[in-house]
C-alpha cells in the first residue's frame, strides 16, 4: 500500500441544522479530503461515521474532495476515511454536539502526520436552553435576554430551578454550585450575594447535572457548574463590553477580557464592573394568640458596586505535562436604606400601637479564589493524573444602624428613639487538595481520587445600643462564633459498555470532623461522622433514536455557615432571625428514571427521600412578642418530580423552541407535636424559551415561566410567573454585537406565601425589583481565527471536581 499522507481539512467544518424531525435538528458535517503533500483533492474517498450502536452514515467525496454528511443527532461517533492506495484513517469517540465549539485531534497511524480538524464551527442556531440525556446547558454568552444581568437571575430562568428560603433547588433537591469546576464554598445569602455580583458577560455557559457521579462531592442533590468565559483562539485577542439599563433606577456594567495564546502558553484575564440599584418591597401580617395582630411593611433600596478581576495561565511543559493557575477576586460594596413600619392591633390594652424602624447599612463582601493544577498524561492509552490545590477566602464587613421610633394610635411619638448598631465582620477560608486519576481499559474505564479540605469561619457579631448618650454592648445579641469543618474523602468510579448498556458504578467515602465554638457563651459543639455515598447509573441505547437510563445516588446537604452560627439578626422590633448550632446535615437518597427520543424529547421521573430535612421554622417569645425564625431539622421529607422537555424547530431552523413542563410534590414529616406542617400539594410549572434567527446576524429571544401554588413544610406559596424578551444584532463583520432586552415585562415576579406554625398564622409578600430594560454593546478585537490546538483537559476548565463547605 502506498505510504502517502493525507489529511482532513474542514473548510466549512460545521454542525448545522438541515432539517428537523419532531423538533430535533439533524446535524450536518461538511469537509474536504486532500493529499497531504500535494494538497490535491481526493475524489471518491469514503467518509463514514459509526454510532455507538453500530450503525453507519457514510458519503463519497466529490471531484473537489468535498463531502457533506447528515448525522441523526448529537452523540459519540467513530470516524473512518478510506481511499484506494492510502492507509485507512481512523478516529474513535468523537463527541458531536451542536452546543459547544470543539477542536478534534486525529492521530494518524504509522508514518502518518498528526493533524487537527481545524475551524470546527457550529453553524446551527444556538439556543439558550438545551438538554441532553445527562445535563441541561444554559448558553449565556449567546443569549440576548441574559445580557446585562447576573448569574443569580440567569439561574432562576432554568427549567426546574427555584428559590426557596434563599436557597436554590433543582427539581425539589438541593444543589452544589461550582465555578469552573471548582467549589464556590457558599450557601444561602452569601451565595446569593456572590452570584448577584457576577455579571452575565463574564459567563460562557452554565451546566446543570441532575445525577453527578462519585467523582463529584457528595454535597448537594445536583450540581450546577458555572463556566466563566475564556477565549481559545491563538494570538492576542479580547473583547470590550459596556451596557446600560434602567428599572426604577439606572444600572450599568463594563467589562474587558484579554487573551494571548500560542502552542504552549495561554495567558488570559479580565476586569468587570457592575453598578445597580434595586428596591425590595415586603409586607407581612401575623395573627398571634390572645388576639394580637402584627402588620409590617418594609421598603428597602440597595445600591451595589461590584468589581471582579480574573487572571489565569495554562502552560504545556511538553505533550504529556501541563500546569496552570487561575485567580479570581470579587468585591461587592453594598449600601442600603430601609424603612420598616410595624402596627399592632389589639383586643387588649397595650403600651404602644406602632413603631417605625429606619436602617442605614453598609457592607463589603470580598471573595478570593486561587486554583493551581498539574496534569500528567501517563501514556498514550489515556491514563491521566490531575492534581489541584485550591484556596478560597470570603470576607464580609457588615454595618447597620437602626433607629426605632414609637407612636401612639393617634400617631404621636411618645418615647425617645431606640438606637441600635450592628457590626458583624466575618472571615471564612477553605483550603483543599485533590488528586484524580483516570485509567481506561479494554472493557472498563476507572476513575479514582482523594481530597482533603479544611474550612474555617470566624463571625464576630457585635450589637450595641445607646443609653445615656453612651454606646453599650447588647449581651443578648452579641456573639463571637468560630466554626471549623475538616473533610477527608476518597472515591472510585468505573464505567463499562456492555453491548447496548452503559453501566457506571461509583462509591465515595467522606469523613467529616466539625466543631462550633461560641467564644461569647463559652459553648462548644463538635461531631465526627463517616458516610459512604454510592451511585449507580445504567443507560440502555435501544437505538440511535431511543435511550433509557436509571440512576441512584446518595448525597448529603450540609448547612451553610450562617445557619449553624447562633447569631441574632435584627429585622424589626418584632422580627428576628437566629442561627441553630445543633442543626444536622440532610441525607438524601435519589432515584431517577429518564427517557430520550432523538435527543429532542426528554422524560424524567424522580423520587428523593430526605432524612433530617432542613426547613424554615418560626417561634414566638411570649414575653417580648418577638417572632424568631430559624432553620431546623424535620424528621424526613419525600420529593416526587416529573418533567417533559421538547425541542422543535420551524421554518428551517429560523424559530426554535425549548419547552419544559414539570410537576413536583414535597411532603415533609415531623415527630414533634409542636411542629404543624401544611399538607403538600402537586405543583406544576412550565418553562418556554423561543429563539428566532434571521438574516444578517439578527436574532431574538422570548422566554417565560409559570409555577402553580406550592405547599411544602410549614408554608404555602401562591402561583407566580414572568416573561422576558430580547434581541441581538451583529455588525462590523460580526466583530460587534448589540443586545437589547426587557426582563419581567409585566412586572409579575412577586412571591407571596402563608405560614401556619405553633399557633402563629402569617401571610408574607416579597417583591424584589425584577423589571429592567438593558442595552449591551460587545466589541471583539484581535485575532479571532481559530488555530489548530491539541485537545486537552485542564484542571480548571473541564475537570469536574467536587465541593465541600
Description:
- With about 800 residues, the protein is mostly beta strands.
- The chain has two domains: about 5-120, Sandwich (Immunoglobulin-like); about 130-780, Maltoporin, Chain A (Beta Barrel), CATH 2.40.170.20.
- It contains three helices and 51 strands.
- The chain has a 28-stranded antiparallel beta sheet that branches. Strands 12, 13, 14, 15, 16, 17, 18 and 19 form an eight-stranded mixed beta sheet that branches. Strands 1, 2, 3, 6 and 11 form a five-stranded mixed beta sheet that branches.
- Strand 41 and strand 42 (about 655-670) form a beta hairpin.
- The longest helix has 9 residues, at about 190-195.
- The radius of gyration is 28 Å and the shape is globular.
- The N and C termini lie far apart (about 60 Å).
- Residues about 1-25, about 100-125 and about 785-805 have low confidence and may be disordered.
Amino acid at each position: 500500500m502506498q505510504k502517502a499522507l493525507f489529511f482532513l481539512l474542514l473548510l466549512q467544518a460545521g454542525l448545522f441544522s438541515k432539517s428537523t424531525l419532531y423538533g430535533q435538528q439533524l446535524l450536518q458535517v461538511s469537509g474536504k479530503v486532500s493529499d497531504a503533500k500535494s494538497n490535491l483533492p481526493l475524489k471518491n474517498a469514503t467518509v463514514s461515521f459509526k454510532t455507538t450502536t453500530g450503525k453507519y452514515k457514510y458519503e463519497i467525496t466529490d471531484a473537489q474532495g468535498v463531502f457533506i454528511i447528515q448525522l441523526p443527532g448529537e452523540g459519540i461517533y467513530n470516524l473512518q476515511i478510506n481511499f484506494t492506495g492510502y492507509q485507512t484513517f481512523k478516529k474513535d469517540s468523537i463527541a458531536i454536539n451542536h452546543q459547544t465549539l470543539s477542536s478534534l485531534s486525529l492521530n494518524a497511524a504509522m508514518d502518518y502526520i498528526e493533524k487537527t480538524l481545524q475551524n470546527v464551527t457550529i453553524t446551527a442556531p444556538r439556543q439558550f436552553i438545551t438538554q441532553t440525556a445527562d445535563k441541561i446547558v444554559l448558553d449565556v454568552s449567546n443569549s440576548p435576554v441574559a445580557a446585562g444581568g447576573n448569574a443569580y437571575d440567569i439561574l432562576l430562568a432554568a427549567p426546574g430551578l427555584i428559590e426557596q428560603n434563599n436557597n436554590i433547588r433543582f427539581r425539589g433537591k438541593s444543589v452544589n454550585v461550582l465555578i469552573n469546576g471548582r467549589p464556590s464554598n457558599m450557601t444561602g445569602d452569601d451565595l446569593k450575594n456572590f452570584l448577584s455580583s457576577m455579571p452575565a458577560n463574564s459567563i460562557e455557559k452554565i451546566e446543570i447535572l441532575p445525577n453527578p457521579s462519585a467523582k463529584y462531592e457528595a454535597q448537594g442533590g445536583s450540581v450546577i457548574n458555572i463556566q466563566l468565559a475564556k477565549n481559545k483562539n491563538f494570538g492576542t485577542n479580547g473583547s470590550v463590553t459596556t451596557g446600560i439599563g434602567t428599572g426604577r433606577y439606572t444600572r450599568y456594567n463594563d467589562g474587558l477580557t484579554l487573551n494571548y495564546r500560542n502552542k504552549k502558553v495561554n495567558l488570559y484575564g479580565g476586569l468587570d464592573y457592575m453598578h445597580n440599584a434595586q428596591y425590595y418591597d415586603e409586607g407581612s401580617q401575623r395573627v398571634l394568640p390572645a388576639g394580637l395582630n402584627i402588620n409590617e411593611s418594609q421598603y428597602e433600596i440597595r445600591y451595589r458596586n461590584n468589581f471582579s478581576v480574573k487572571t489565569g495561565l495554562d502552560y504545556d511543559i511538553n505533550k504529556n505535562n501541563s500546569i496552570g493557575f487561575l485567580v479570581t477576586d470579587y468585591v461587592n460594596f453594598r449600601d442600603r436604606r430601609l424603612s420598616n413600619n410595624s402596627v399592632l392591633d389589639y383586643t387588649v390594652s397595650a403600651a404602644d400601637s406602632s413603631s417605625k424602624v429606619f436602617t442605614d447599612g453598609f457592607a463589603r463582601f470580598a471573595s478570593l479564589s486561587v486554583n493551581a493544577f498539574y496534569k500528567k498524561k501517563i501514556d498514550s492509552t489515556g491514563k491521566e493524573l490531575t492534581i489541584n490545590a485550591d484556596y478560597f477566602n470570603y470576607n464580609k464587613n457588615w454595618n447597620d444602624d437602626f433607629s426605632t421610633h414609637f407612636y401612639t394610635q393617634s400617631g404621636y411619638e411618645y418615647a425617645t428613639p431606640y438606637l441600635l448598631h450592628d457590626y458583624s465582620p466575618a472571615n471564612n477560608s477553605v483550603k483543599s487538595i485533590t488528586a484524580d486519576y483516570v485509567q481506561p481499559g479494554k472493557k472498563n474505564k476507572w476513575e479514582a481520587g482523594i481530597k482533603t479540605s479544611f474550612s474555617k469561619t470566624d463571625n464576630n457579631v457585635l450589637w450595641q445600643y445607646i443609653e445615656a448618650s453612651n454606646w453599650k454592648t447588647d449581651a443578648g445579641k452579641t456573639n463571637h462564633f468560630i466554626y471549623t469543618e475538616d473533610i477527608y474523602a476518597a472515591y472510585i468510579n468505573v464505567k463499562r459498555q456492555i453491548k447496548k448498556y452503559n453501566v457506571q458504578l461509583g462509591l465515595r467515602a467522606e469523613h467529616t470532623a466539625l466543631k462550633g465554638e461560641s467564644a461569647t457563651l463559652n459553648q462548644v459543639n463538635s461531631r465526627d461522622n463517616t458516610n459512604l455515598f454510592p451511585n449507580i447509573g445504567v443507560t440502555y441505547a435501544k437505538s440511535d433514536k431511543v435511550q433509557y437510563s436509571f440512576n441512584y445516588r446518595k448525597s448529603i446537604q450540609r448547612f451553610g455557615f450562617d445557619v449553624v452560627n447562633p447569631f441574632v439578626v435584627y429585622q424589626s422590633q418584632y422580627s428576628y432571625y437566629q442561627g441553630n448550632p445543633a442543626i444536622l446535615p440532610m441525607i438524601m437518597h435519589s432515584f431517577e428514571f429518564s427517557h430520550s427520543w432523538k435527543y429532542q424529547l426528554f422524560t424524567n421521573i424522580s423520587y428523593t427521600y430526605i432524612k433530617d430535612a432542613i426547613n424554615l421554622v418560626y417561634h414566638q417569645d411570649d414575653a417580648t412578642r418577638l417572632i424568631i425564625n430559624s432553620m431546623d431539622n424535620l424528621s424526613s421529607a419525600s420529593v416526587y418530580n416529573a418533567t417533559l422537555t421538547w425541542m422543535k424547530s420551524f421554518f428551517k431552523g429560523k424559530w426554535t423552541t425549548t419547552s419544559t413542563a414539570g410537576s413536583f410534590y414535597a411532603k415533609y414529616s415531623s415527630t414533634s407535636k409542636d411542629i404543624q406542617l401544611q399538607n403538600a400539594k402537586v405543583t406544576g410549572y412550565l418553562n418556554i424559551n423561543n429563539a428566532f434567527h434571521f438574516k444578517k446576524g439578527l436574532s431574538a429571544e422570548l422566554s417565560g415561566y409559570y409555577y402553580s401554588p406550592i405547599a411544602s413544610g410549614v408554608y404555602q406559596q401562591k402561583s407566580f410567573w414572568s416573561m422576558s424578551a430580547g434581541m441581538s444584532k451583529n455588525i462590523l463583520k460580526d466583530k460587534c454585537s448589540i443586545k437589547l432586552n426587557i426582563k419581567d415585562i409585566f412586572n409579575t415576579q412577586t412571591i407571596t406565601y402563608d405560614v401556619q406554625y405553633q399557633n402563629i398564622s402569617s401571610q408574607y409578600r416579597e417583591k424584589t425589583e425584577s423589571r429592567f430594560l438593558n442595552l449591551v454593546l460587545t466589541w471583539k478585537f484581535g485575532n479571532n481565527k481559530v488555530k489548530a490546538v491539541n485537545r486537552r483537559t485542564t484542571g480548571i476548565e473541564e475537570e469536574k471536581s467536587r465541593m465541600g463547605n
